């Protein structure tokens, strides 16, 4: 069962990303090894719903539905909520940008042993030459001023949040981004 937000009458937030912090600032801190984790406990599904609600008022998602998979599970996590929010927001933003008007982007999360996997699915298929460069810094099909989004997904997920980011993109299946994170990370093991 999918639940989505259909009422687009709420105030629209523009530009697309009202950043928690500038993505460029975060990338600079990561590359300079000065980024510090701010660990807290939170529920995975609560976080995902908050991010979905944020995008519901974004001009990026106008005329598109972001549907939360009804099988999603809520599990308590201890992680850096701010960085995890950046990762999930970027995954959703990419899917919404790739989707034509009227299409639905599906999001969800499931717990498995000591991990939680967040996923974002859209119907678009990524060309093979783009897939080969998906996580390369500064690679963009949109403009020369872009190209940090998917790079940041992988960098933050794997270097700081001790996670793993993957994607598949195939005809008749669309594109699925998955980011899997431990339920609990500690500041001492996060950047090792």
Description:
29% of the residues lie in helices and 27% in strands. It starts with a strand and ends in a 10-residue tail after the last strand. The strands form two sheets. Strands 1-3-5-6-8-7 form a six-stranded mixed beta sheet. It has a two-stranded antiparallel sheet with strand order 2-4. The chain has one domain (2-182): Histidine kinase-like ATPase, C-terminal domain (Heat Shock Protein 90, 2-Layer Sandwich). The chain is an alpha+beta fold and 192 residues long. A hairpin with a 2-residue loop joins strand 5 (104-112) and strand 6 (115-122). The radius of gyration is 16 Å and the shape is globular.
The number of helical elements comes to: 5
When the domains are counted, the total is 1
CA(first)-CA(last) distance: 39 Å
- Please name the CATH architecture: 2-Layer Sandwich
Compact overview of the structure:
The chain is an alpha+beta fold and 192 residues long. It contains 5 helices and 8 strands.
Which features would summarize this protein structure in a list?
192 residues, alpha+beta, Heat Shock Protein 90, 6-stranded mixed sheet, two-stranded antiparallel sheet, 5 helices, 8 strands
Please render the helix and strand layout as text.
Layout: E1 2-4, H1 23-31, E2 39-43, H2 44-56, E3 65-69, E4 76-80, H3 81-98, E5 104-112, E6 115-122, H4 128-131, H5 149-160, E7 164-170, E8 174-182
Helix pairs in contact: 2-3, 3-5
């Amino acid at each position: 069962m999918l639940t989505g937000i259909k009422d687009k009458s709420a105030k629209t937030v523009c530009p697309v990303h009202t950043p928690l912090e500038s993505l460029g600032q975060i990338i600079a801190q990561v590359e300079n090894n000065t980024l510090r984790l701010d660990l807290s406990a939170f529920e995975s599904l609560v976080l995902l719903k908050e991010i979905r609600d944020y995008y519901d008022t974004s001009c990026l998602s106008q005329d598109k539905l972001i549907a939360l998979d009804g099988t999603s599970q809520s599990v308590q996590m201890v992680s850096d909520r701010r960085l995890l929010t950046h990762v999930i927001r970027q995954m959703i933003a990419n899917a919404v940008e790739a989707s034509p008007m009227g299409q639905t982007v599906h999001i969800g999360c499931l717990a498995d042993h000591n991990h939680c996997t967040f996923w974002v699915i859209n119907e678009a298929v990524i060309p093979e030459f783009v897939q080969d460069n998906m996580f390369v810094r500064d690679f963009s099909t949109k403009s020369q001023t872009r190209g940090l989004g998917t790079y940041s997904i992988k960098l933050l997920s794997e270097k700081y949040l001790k996670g793993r980011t993957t994607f598949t993109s195939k005809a008749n299946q669309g594109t699925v981004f998955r980011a899997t994170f431990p339920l609990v990370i500690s500041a001492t093991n996060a950047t090792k």
